[in-house]
Task: structure prediction
Amino acid sequence: MVVGLRRPLKQSIVKPPSHCEVCEHYLKWYELIPVLSFIISKGKCRHCHNRISFYYPLVELLSGFLFALAYYIFGFSYECLVMICLASLLIIIFVSDFKYFVILDGPLIIFSLLIILFIYLNSDLKAVGFKIMAGLILALFMVIVRLIGNKIFKRDSLGGGDIKLSFLIGLVLGVRLGFVALIISSFIAFPYALYVMNKKEDEMPYGPFLITALIVCFIFQSEFLNLLDLLII
Result:
């Protein structure tokens, strides 16, 4: 979460240490225990007594849930390691894209390289090549979507970060499941898009919906592949 909050502002994730955003009081170690510290302090800064955003314990709960889910579903395996990477990236993208409309390059590069390493260790160099090709195909598809969207709407219709994230989707899922994830992300984003249109805002984050769809397809990839086989796609 700190990465998503600070890196878009070009701030260090180490200095200054975690602190109250109102009084800038540096938090002690016992004030940084996920969720528990929020409950003990009754959602307030122990120094100035201003309320702490409920966003913090919510993100902490989501992180813990996704990490536990990864181990529960996959055990200690290649899939578990990939799921942990995706869960970590989901938290960063949710924070940075919703708050700043930015998907950071650094985390995308780091987690893409980690996943490439996991693919190589779990399979071979040939599999890595196929996965990278799948990522490039999905990224190219999203570039085409952006060009068409820009032509229709006379403005940027898709962010560069979304295109880079689509490469990761192809890298993890392959081409067929990757396109399924893109379709699912559109359905997930649709209610929020209506909300944004109703408020007459000009921009909405798409990254959180892309990464959510990626995780859904990764968890249920066998079911989706079986469905695609039935549909002969």
